[in-house]
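Key result, reporting period 2: structure in, sequence out.
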């Protein structure tokens, strides 16, 4: 049949880069995705097992029981919680409800790549504003880039990949000055305990994003949530799928939210490992930036090697870390590594010591 398939694709989608499925080596030390290295609590595993024989049934509509559990955890009402298939899902819902083609989204760069990706999917325009030398926000530059087309600003706090935490007063300045939607992505909240969730009833343009992927160690089950006001939550749910989170994910998340002791123990371990890993990396000559997360952002320039080469060398030694060299305006010397188990961190250090 003579169909001109190319002419049928949405123009905005045609401009996106192709993606490839990747299967990571089962035996590799995986520090590239910012994951928690510990397995889920036995209570989470038990909850999944107990739910497994009910998966002939649909999950709660709009994740009802999980919304209630998250409302308890965060101290807001269930109507202020929007759940999704990871916070990635919520980022996509946010751009869909606020943005028309050609409208603008401010992104302090470098930052989490999904904001820019989701913006382009709906034909809106990412406006990148450089961060300062220490990766903190350039608040004045952000305010100066606002135009009548600006609809949304995404601020990851702490930021990925740079790991730094922005002081609350700067976020307040932005909230005071901007009429647009301000999304504060607190994916790493439990590691730093800094939040602006208490402000959602004060600023009607504020959405706080959270995730169970990192501190709760449930990256594979895909649950994220937004905390906001009733009106924005209502609009997000208007376009959400009726079953945004699957039944096993709901059971696992509810069990994880109850097992706080286990979660806190893991967080403490990450903080302890960080205290050992950072000086060891610095001793090798690497620059390690301050971190409020479970990962480190590192500059390889003092070693005279690009991060691309360093990441390749580590991969050859079975250790996966994420290369940011040359990306989003960065020099070719930056990479990110998750804090692994004590053993994984030692393997990372041994590989580096063997070469530098
Ligand atoms: C800042 C930030 N937001 C959101 C996400 C995505 O989280 P989720 O696994 O909940 O989709 C990540 C993942 O790395 C992140 O770093």
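The corresponding designed sequence is given below.
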């Amino acid at each position: 049949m003579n169909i001109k398939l190319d002419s049928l694709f949405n123009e905005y989608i045609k401009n996106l880069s192709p993606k490839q499925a990747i299967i990571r080596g089962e035996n590799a030390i995986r520090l590239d995705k910012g994951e928690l290295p510990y397995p889920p609590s036995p209570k989470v595993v038990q909850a999944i097992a107990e739910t497994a024989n009910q998966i002939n049934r649909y999950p709660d509509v709009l994740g009802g029981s999980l919304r209630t559990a998250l409302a308890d955890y965060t101290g807001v009402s269930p109507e202020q919680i929007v759940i999704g298939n990871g916070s990635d899902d919520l980022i996509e819902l946010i751009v869909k409800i606020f943005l028309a083609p050609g409208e603008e989204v401010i992104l302090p760069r470098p930052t989490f790549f999904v904001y820019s990706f989701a913006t382009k999917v709906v034909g809106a325009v990412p406006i990148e504003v450089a961060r300062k030398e220490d990766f903190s926000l350039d608040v004045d530059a952000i305010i100066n880039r606002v135009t009548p087309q600006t609809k949304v600003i995404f601020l990851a706090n702490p930021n990925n990949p740079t790991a730094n935490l922005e002081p609350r007063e700067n976020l307040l300045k932005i909230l005071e000055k901007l009429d647009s939607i301000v999304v504060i992505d607190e994916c790493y909240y439990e590691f730093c305990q800094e939040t602006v969730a208490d402000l959602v009833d004060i600023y009607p343009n504020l959405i706080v994003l959270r995730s169970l992927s990192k501190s709760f160690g449930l990256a594979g089950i895909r649950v994220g949530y937004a905390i906001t006001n009733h009106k924005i939550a209502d609009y997000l749910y208007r376009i959400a799928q009726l079953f945004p989170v699957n039944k096993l994910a709901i059971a696992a998340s509810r069990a994880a939210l109850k097992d706080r002791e286990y979660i806190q123990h893991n967080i403490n371990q990450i903080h302890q490992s960080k205290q050992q890993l950072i000086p060891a990396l610095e001793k090798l000559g690497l620059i390690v930036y301050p971190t409020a997360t479970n990962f480190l952002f590192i500059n390889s320039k003092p070693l005279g090697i690009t991060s691309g080469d360093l990441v390749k060398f580590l991969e050859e030694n079975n250790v996966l870390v994420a290369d940011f060299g040359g990306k989003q305006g960065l020099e070719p010397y930056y990479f990110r590594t998750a804090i692994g188990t004590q053993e994984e961190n030692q393997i990372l250090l041994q590989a580096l010591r063997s070469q530098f």
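Residues 44 and 298 are 33 Å apart (CA to CA). The mean pLDDT is 97. This case is discussed further under Risks and Mitigation.
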